[in-house]
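Me: I keep going back and forth on a fold encoding question. No explanation is needed for now; the record alone will do.

Assistant:
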Amino acid sequence: MDLDAYVRAKSPTWQRLDELSRKRHLTGAESDEILDAYQRTATHLSVIRSSAPDGAVVAYLSTLLARARGHALGSTATTWEQLGRYVTVTLPAALYGTRRWWLTVLLVAVVFAVGIGWWLLSHPTMEHAFGSREQIEHLVNDDFESYYSAHAASSFAFQVWTNNFRLALLCIAFGVFGFPVVWMLYENILNLAVTGSIMIRHGRGDLFFGLITPHGLLELTCLFVAAGVGLRIFWSWVAPGERKRSESLAEAGRTAVAIGIGLVVLLLISGAIEAFVTPSGLPTWARIGIGIVVWVGFLWYALVLGRRAHQRGATGDLDEIDRGYSVPVV
């Protein structure tokens, strides 16, 4: 196809669409005209993308259609409709689409924590490298348990929530560099393994798991999700495949934003459990049971509901008309 001739032939339609899209108010006749021009221009864009994918022309028409969309297609979905779609489609699809990353991080972190904990239990003298005898006795007999009840539940929940989502969002934000994500994950898992080994060695393993499990299952999984998404961002520009690095990075970044917003809410739930359930007077089995139910609910949301959304074509990214079109790459 002769692209220059095609552009000359179709540019009057594009110019008219541009004029109409810049008007604040349209008459009835103009509304019909802009709808017709919009449909024609969308067809032109499809033809150019498939026959002569020129980057400048594709970008121009994509911008033109995006600007005219409101006039041509009417108002978009309401905020509540958009929120409902995000909760039931976008977020679970994004979690499912990135599952290989965060499930791998989860598995590696668990193996690392168990390995370090086992090694520390096999070398009892190593615990003194992390604190004096008095500090360890305070941790075992008082500090670990009192941490969850030393402050008012509401303020403690807010403190835990802000700290956790700050850490999760840092994993995503620094994901483009790769190493900071691994380091933050290493520090948190090492701290958990060291504390757990000390509590178990001193005969307080039941207390450790009874207090850490109710909120820790969801909290740590959210951290693994954030780390996995961050590493996916890093890999998107290291190995972009057949796409440009900028396009690959942009797609991973948009999906990461969708997941990051969801993690803020999930970590709020985790913080509420840590503040109100973990230190409560409920039996240990009941507190752990609540944590397991919430965690299994998250896995169902991410892997089952997410799979259903993914099968319907959702990816967790913006719709093509909102994110712009990409020129095919050979």
